[in-house]
């Protein structure tokens, strides 16, 4: 199975061993299927839309007939993942949805954490407000980077509720150290908030924060 550049980057960021990996709404289960192939973890496929989970089940039955004991399927709101029911190291992946929804899901999930859990996020927009929400949660940054696919640039956030890692910042740190890609991302971000600020004065503060970045 060949992944696109964005999903492949998310896959390659994960270098630790996990007992459980939760693939939440990630491009019809492609990423989880790749981990089913490359790791020994039990893969949990989750989506709130029954038809999408049915399609994932069909694909897994076809391409991974020998691995049916190594994955589970859920038609479930991601905010209600039963993380506390499982032992061992867990990774929750939320990619391909907006930053506002990601923030809502993360707030709900982090309200009920008992053991250390890692999260891999790749939202499609609203990164600043998402990062503000994440700052209020018991999380730290393990890795952050940018990835470009089809002329769109995404932020990748690998977080942990454990004790290792660095503080989450509203603008990010390492994402501005990727040379020409970082410069293009900053230009796109400045253009976006300049347009938004014309109709929403509250966006001016966000625009000003990005304007103070020096690359």
TrEMBL record:
An annotated GO BP: methylation
Protein's UniProt keywords contain Transferase: yes
Endoplasmic reticulum in keyword set: no
Pfam families, per the entry: Methyltransf_18 (PF12847)
Region forming the signal peptide: none
Gene Ontology MF terms in the entry: methyltransferase activity
Alphabetical UniProt keywords: Methyltransferase, Transferase
Entries under InterPro entries matching the protein: SAM-dependent_MTases_sf, UCP028234
Protein name as annotated: SAM-dependent methyltransferase
Organism: Pseudoalteromonas piscicida
Lineage of producing organism: Bacteria, Pseudomonadati, Pseudomonadota, Gammaproteobacteria, Alteromonadales
């Amino acid at each position: 199975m060949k992944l696109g550049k964005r999903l492949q980057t998310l896959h390659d960021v994960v270098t630790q061993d996990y007992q459980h990996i939760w693939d939440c709404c990630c491009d019809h289960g492609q990423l989880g299927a790749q981990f089913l192939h490359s790791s020994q973890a039990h893969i949990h496929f989750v989506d709130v839309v029954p038809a999408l989970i049915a399609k994932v089940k069909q694909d897994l039955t076809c391409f991974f007939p020998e691995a049916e004991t190594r994955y589970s399927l859920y038609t479930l709101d991601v905010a209600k993942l039963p993380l506390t029911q499982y032992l061992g190291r867990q990774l929750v992946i939320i990619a391909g949805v907006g930053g506002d929804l990601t923030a809502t899901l993360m707030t709900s999930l982090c309200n009920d954490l008992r053991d250390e859990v890692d999260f891999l996020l790749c939202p499609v927009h609203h990164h600043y407000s998402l990062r503000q929400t994440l700052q209020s949660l018991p999380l730290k940054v393990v890795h952050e980077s940018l990835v470009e696919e089809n002329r769109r640039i995404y932020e990748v956030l690998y977080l942990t509720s454990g004790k290792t890692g660095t503080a989450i910042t509203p603008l990010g740190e390492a994402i501005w150290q990727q040379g020409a890609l970082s410069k293009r991302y900053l230009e796109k971000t400045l253009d976006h908030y300049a347009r938004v600020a014309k109709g929403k004065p509250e966006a001016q503060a966000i625009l000003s924060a990005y304007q103070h970045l020096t690359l």
